[in-house]
Amino acid sequence: MPRLSKAARGKFRWIGVKADLNFNSRNELINIISEIMGHNGWKLYDIRNLDELCFFILRIKLEDYSNSLESLNSYEKFQTLTSSGKIKLIRQRIF
After folding, report:
1. Rounded to an integer, what distance in angstroms lies between the CA atom of residue 80 and that of residue 15?
2. Contacts of 27 (CB under 8 A, 6+ apart)
3. Within 13 Å and on the Cβ side, how many CA atoms surround 9?
4. Vertex 46, ends 44 and 51: CA angle to 5°?
5. Domain residue extents for the chain
């Protein structure tokens, strides 16, 4: 079966986020994000704990992008730093 063309695949945005706390595990961060944004339309990628801060990258469906930004920024410990259609650019900017 042939692959879907690029245009037929879903569109996504990558968001780089800074958290003002460290997480002991990936699941702990996933649980907090799930409380804020629900369970659909996002996926957690990279996580880095530096000093008392945590930086992470989320993949968001394009149609959920603006609502996701509002939800993430409404949580007092999270601050969105950058977003792009390419994860490589997000990694360069926040890591």
Report:
1. 7
2. none
3. 7
4. 120
5. 12-94
pTM, rounded to two decimals: 0.91
Strands of the 53-61 sheet, one edge to the other: 42-50, 53-61, 12-19, 78-84
Token pair in block for residue 21:
């706390």
CATH placement of domain 12-94 = 3.30.70.2750
**Nearest-10 crossing angle of helices 26-37, 65-74:** 110
DSSP classification of residue 7: T
Task: Say what the pLDDT of residue 39 is.
Answer: 84
d(CA 63, CA 49): 29
State whether the Cα torsion 31-37-41-46 is positive or negative.
negative
| Residues 37-84: tens digit of each pLDDT | 998 889 999 999 999 999 999 999 999 999 999 999 999 999 999 999
